[in-house]
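Data availability excerpt. The first of two example chains:
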Amino acid sequence: MYKNERIDLACAFRWTVRLDMHEGVANHFSLAVNEEGTQFLMNPNLRHFSLIRASEILVLDANDSSTMEQPDAPDPTAWGLHASIHRNCPHARCVMHLHPVYSTVLASLADSNLPPIDQNTAIFYKRYVIDEEYGGMAFEKEGERCAELFNDPKIKVMIMGNHGVLVIGSNVADTFNRLYYFERAAETYIKALWTGQPLRFLSDEIAEKTAVQWEKYPDYTETHLAELKAILDEEEASYRL
């Protein structure tokens, strides 16, 4: 069941490792598979991203209170965060949460804003929210609080202060592409700060124009994921199993 969706998600897990954005056996991706968004796929508990296969991915129901009592229960923080978002934010079809280095450095700054200083940072112009109220690990109460920050459908990224980053999208291709570019954008900004030199900021008008152009760029996200799968098919085809 959900063969293609599982394969896409497994590809995203494997490629996250190749980008060195994984962290031990932590972090989690999920993908809604019903119209309401409450049933979703998610990685199995404590499974390293480099080993995840499509057939191993869990099918969960955000409204099933017995989930954590089952033998194949997901990680408690994964359940707390992802189930809360899928239960309360039906537009968040895919949810990816990581602690990649540059995004987490950004989330650790007193000012965690990402200013538009180049084409990639402009992608996120007025399309992210900063969570300023970190309350500990993302068990269910914390997950419910985070879900409330996605009330505006325009917001696609949560910079989780003192924590990491959470990205949402319409499918795996859309969300993984956004995650990839957010980490790239954060890296550009952090390294620009390292120089100690004045930054060249885009105007509000050009930043918004560029963000819209990215959103309308034809077939880009789907092609990006398709190419990643093509590489894995040659080098690491076990992700499809």
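And the second chain:
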Amino acid sequence: MRCAVVGAGAWGTALADLLARNGHQVTLWAYEPDVVQAINEKHENVRFLAGHRLAPTLTAVGDLHKAVDGAELVTLATPSQVLRPIVKSARTSFRSTAPIVIASKGLEPKSLALMTEVAEEEIPGATVVALSGPSFAAEVAKCQPTAVVVASKSANAAAFTQRAFSSPYFRAYTHTDVTGVELGGALKNVMAVATGISEGLGLGFNARAALITRGLAEMTRLGVALGADQSTFAGLAGLGDLVLTCTGSLSRNRAVGLELGKGRKLEEVLKETETVAEGVVTAQSARELAAREGVEMPIVDTVNRVLFEGQPARSAIAALMTRELRSEVDE
């Protein structure tokens, strides 16, 4: 079928390549003209996914309306902070019956909306599907085994998306808890920054395991407050993605935290990469969302103090360890 992928970063490119290899007619929209040219002429996204030869049938365009027009399935894989203006600019070209798959992970600044909520607000009546789970773009592009979740209020849309993306190396499970699946994908990036900071400080595996486990507790706590199912966070979009992003060497968010733990400044670290570390953007929104819901998230608070308030990483971690003693289980 005719598919469109909006956003030609590493993740969007990997998903577009997957769909093309599954036999679909895929058009990938890229903001950068050099990315369009490289994909069409070299069958490679040299800028964001170098070293991976893409399906020869994959076509890239710089015209957003041309990419989306007539598509039976549209996947959005832009940075979370620009998803709204991109959707707004192209909404007249979306086919009314086409499911919109949200592969972006994050919370919108100020509104604190999930990405599916942003799409629904900009395209009233749209059928949205959240795609999340433990999946590094480079490994998907290498056709390495990957499992993700596709969640929607519409069982038909979830199943439709599942069939479109699934392949012998990419397995999609359906789910109904859109909030839980999306929130897991957004918050795990903040936790990955925290584990990176810990690793940069040389605090060892015990500290990393503690941060992952308590990070999962924070994610679950906020998710339940927002109406998500607790069990969702024990699945691929919760624990699975959290473990991958907090421990994998390909994690941008962990890499940012690692450099901060070594004493470098955030501005200096971010200048060195074109790719977006969503955990940095999401940290502030997650803190505001937790405050709005009256949910305690000490790891999220700690990451914010290190990122934006100038607290030295070592003293921030020490403050976490000396918080008031409590039960592990929320009462």
